[in-house]
Design brief:
The complex is a heterodimer of chains A (473) and B (314). In chain A, a hairpin with a 3-residue loop joins strand 18 and strand 19. Chain A is globular and about 65 Å long. Helices cover 30% and strands 22% of the residues of chain A. Chain A is α+β, with helices and mostly antiparallel strands. With 314 residues, chain B is mainly α. Chain B has one domain. Chain B contains 15 helices and no strands. The longest helix of chain B has 34 residues. Chain B is globular. The chains are: A alpha+beta (473), B mainly alpha (314). Chains A and B meet through helix 2, helix 9, strand 5 and strand 7 of A and helix 1, helix 5 and helix 6 of B.
């Protein structure tokens, strides 16, 4: 892809004009004094603290939860941009669900030679326990968080599919609530599509995949507990959906069914929205040292007596080594041309890709296949000579563990930082719900790299969040 | 409701109430220590407080002798003392956080901001030297939290378990407050001090926000026996032991399950004894004995509720 001198800016065209869908906001922004904005930001911080919208940092004493920085300048998408993006997301997630179903059944895609058996079946994310098992509606990734960036002249690229336990949706909702509280006037000036119905959709979606024959399913949200970094989100979603927030110790399996311990005795559970990784779900099937899970859960699941969302084994489709094949999957399962682009990816187990990457380390981003959260990653142009040398050795030791991608000039969005409003790089994670139908609330979580020039938007690496507006036509 | 959720809400009620009751206990003792006649027996009084609260040993580990301002600091602010007011505010907040999805957002925000503010201000604004200001603040935050619970919490099982926790704790604390007073007065009499009953017992009533009520409904003078009767048995005094027993019983009935019959019977028995008994019939062997029995029965109810509802194992 071409790399223009300046990255695509969401608000301004290359020659400095305000894009039409930002016109109203931009005019409002020019009328605000920096001091007033600063006060609003301080107000937001104190509200977030009081409401306890915080995340625990591993290794820090509890009670010291931190805020994810919130930026008061929204990221705005036009109705047309959103329509294109949403169509592409629906298509992509449908194909990914079809892929997972295929892998755990007939494996047609392997027979067709689009992927090798070794690539899939020897992948640690492949769960043999799922082979041949039917899941309600054939849906595996009920909740998907697809990371999208804009680069080049503003084209959308999918950076990563998150199909296991994607998080962040609570920030989408809380950021909107905060914006409406801080700047109510903006919402009468702009027709911003609402997102507040997400928990309602989520509940509907979860109920729609209950085991066959259950009329009024009991849904619960399974959390690792209050010390987990995403605990706020778990509690928030359970509360908004009106379902019990359970820990592993609250559930048990008897006579093949899953029950929760209540003050009135055991109560049956039909759908488990789990926010625990596969490995910890059932000590009888996976990690025997897990104290977070429920012994016997896997057997009840296999017998079709409880639905687990997302299904076990979805990691096979969001693995970075599988990612380059998603466009092929879309053609294979849906017979359609992909609407969203993949970032061109080099797979370092391939000799020529490896040679190219080692020769161009200073231009590329190298990622660990199984890494996440911005850990285990080299941003070539930003790294020092020593860091690149260190990474070269790590790659040579196990090339199959790495992929490489061009350093995308991620789009920028005006952001309120210490010096005032300045462009910062952003990405976007919309949340795609699959059940009887595929739905997406208009928006998502926009993450922003607050340090000037930084491309890393992860909250563990100093990233912040922004409210994401989709304007109605 | 999940047993674990009920457990957290129950302890939320207990810790929030404990913080407030401790502030009131501290308030009484501190005010009395400012009266001229009490000065001599200062250390004795604080020792009795520590002993009655079961904190004598824990205090001895932190301090070599009983100095009033050390005791105040230990009871109000010491993070190493799990029973200090600050620790209780934190425990209440942690229990609220564990079930923030099951209580109202306003409740969670109230308990959260109480803790955040206490943590931020305790080292500078609040100290042992101006503990009265801290006590007033704790009471104010407790009133606020009570109002938020009243106005925003669904009257489901969680509400009942929180009430049970609150009133078991209150009954326990008020009984201890009376025991402290009886022991202090006995110690003073032994030392040959001639103290007018009015001071210690009116300060106790004020500590329970009950002095004006006492004046309005009782024509008795402020004498130990009158105050004890009023604080233990009066039906309309918000902090009376009778009223706590009544509310424990009532809320327990609202959550009854197949296992809880015996627990309910015991709570009902306590309730009706206090309802129809007199001090003469209830405490034939003295007030101390009666109050100690009451503490044991409160502890028994707490254990039984844990087993019947909250998933505790014996």
């Amino acid at each position: 892809m071409d790399r223009p001198a300046l990255p695509y800016d969401e608000m301004y065209t290359a020659d400095g004009h305000v894009r039409p869908h930002y016109a109203v906001y931009s005019e409002w922004l020019t009328q605000q004094a920096d001091d007033a904005l600063r006060r609003k930001r301080a107000e937001a911080d104190s509200l977030f603290h009081r409401v306890g919208i915080t995340f625990a940092v591993y290794g820090e004493e509890d009670g010291n939860e931190r805020l994810i920085p919130f930026d008061i300048v929204p990221r705005v998408l036009s109705a047309e941009e959103w329509r294109r993006l949403a169509d592409g997301l629906r298509q992509r997630v449908s194909a990914l669900n079809a892929f997972i179903g295929d892998i755990y059944h007939g494996q047609e895609i392997l027979k067709a030679g689009l992927l090798t058996a070794e690539q899939v079946l020897c992948n640690p994310q492949y769960r043999p326990e799922m082979q041949g098992m039917d899941v309600p509606g054939g849906i595996y990734a009920h909740i998907a968080g697809i990371d999208v960036v804009r680069a080049g002249a503003g084209e959308f690229y999918v950076l990563e599919d998150n199909l296991r336990v994607p998080s962040g949706v609570s920030y989408m909702l809380e950021d909107r609530k905060m914006m409406m509280r801080l700047f109510p006037e903006l919402f009468s000036l702009n027709r911003v599509a609402p997102v507040e119905h997400y928990p309602d959709r989520l509940l509907e979606n979860l109920a729609s995949v209950a085991p066959a024959g259950v009329a009024d399913p009991v849904v619960v949200l399974l959390t690792p507990g209050a010390h987990n970094s995403a605990y706020f989100e778990h509690a928030f979603l359970a509360q908004q959906m009106g379902v019990e927030l359970v820990e592993g110790q609250d559930l048990f399996v008897r006579d093949g069914f899953v029950y929760m311990r209540t003050t009135q005795g055991p109560r049956r559970v039909d759908v488990i929205y789990r926010r625990i990784d596969d490995d910890f779900l059932d000590p009888l099937s996976f990690r025997p040292d897990s104290v977070l899970g429920v012994p016997g859960l896997m057997a009840a699941y296999r017998a079709g007596r409880v639905t687990v969302a997302n299904a076990i084994g979805t990691g096979i489709a969001d693995d970075k080594s599988i990612y380059p094949c998603v466009p092929e999957m879309i053609r294979f399962y849906l017979g359609e041309a992909p609407l969203l682009e993949n970032v061109p990816t080099r797979i370092l187990r391939r000799k020529d890709d490896l040679a190219y990457t080692l020769a161009h380390l200073d231009e590329l981003v190298v990622k660990e296949v199984h890494g996440s959260g911005g850990y285990g990653m080299l941003v070539g142009p930003a790294a020092s000579e020593a860091e690149r040398e260190d990474f070269r050795l790590r790659i040579l030791a196990a090339p199959e563990k790495y992929i490489a991608q061009p350093t995308l000039a991620l789009s920028t969005c005006p952001t309120f930082v210490e010096q005032g409003v300045a462009p910062r790089h952003i990405d976007l994670r919309p949340f795609v719900l699959s059940g009887r139908e595929v739905t997406i609330v208009p928006g998502g979580l926009t993450r922003v790299a607050l340090r000037s020039g930084s491309l890393v938007v992860n909250s563990s690496q100093g990233g912040g969040t922004k409210d994401t507006w989709v304007l109605e036509a | 409701m999940l047993s674990r959720t009920a457990d957290h809400v129950y302890w939320l009620g207990r810790y929030a109430e404990r913080a407030e009751e401790l502030a009131r206990t501290l308030d009484v003792q501190y005010r009395l220590s400012l009266l001229p006649h009490e000065r001599r027996s200062d250390a004795v009084g604080w020792n009795i407080v520590l002993h009655t609260l079961g904190l004598e040993a824990a205090f001895a580990e932190r301090h070599e002798r009983v100095e009033p301002h050390w005791v105040i600091d230990f009871l109000a602010f010491d993070a190493a003392n799990p029973s200090s007011i600050l620790s209780c505010l934190r425990a209440a907040r942690e229990n609220a956080r564990a079930v923030r999805g099951a209580i109202s957002s306003e409740m969670w925000e109230t308990f959260n901001s109480t803790w955040l503010e206490a943590r931020a201000q305790a080292p500078s604004r609040f100290t042992a030297l101006n503990v009265s200001e801290f006590i007033d603040w704790v009471k104010y935050r407790a009133h606020l939290a009570r109002g938020v619970v009243l106005a925003s919490m669904l009257r489901d099982e969680g509400y009942h378990f929180m009430q049970i926790g609150t009133f078991l704790e209150r009954s326990d604390s008020v009984a201890r407050l009376l025991l402290i007073r009886l022991a202090c007065e006995a110690a003073a009499a032994e030392n040959g001090a001639t103290v007018h009953d009015y001071y210690p017992w009116s300060v106790l009533l004020r500590g329970l926000s009950a002095f004006e009520s006492f004046r309005r409904v009782s024509r008795d003078s402020v004498r130990p026996q009158h105050v004890l009767e009023f604080v233990i048995l009066h039906r309309h005094v918000p902090r009376s032991i009778y009223r706590s027993a009544n509310l424990v019983h009532e809320n327990l009935q609202a959550v009854a399950n197949a296992k809880s019959g015996e627990t309910e019977r015991r709570a009902g028995l306590l309730h009706s004894e206090l309802r129809y008994g007199t001090l003469a019939t209830l405490a034939p062997q003295g007030y101390e004995r009666f109050l100690h029995d009451l503490l044991a029965r409160t502890a028994d109810l707490s254990d039984r509720i844990g087993r019947d509802f909250l998933g505790h194992v014996t």
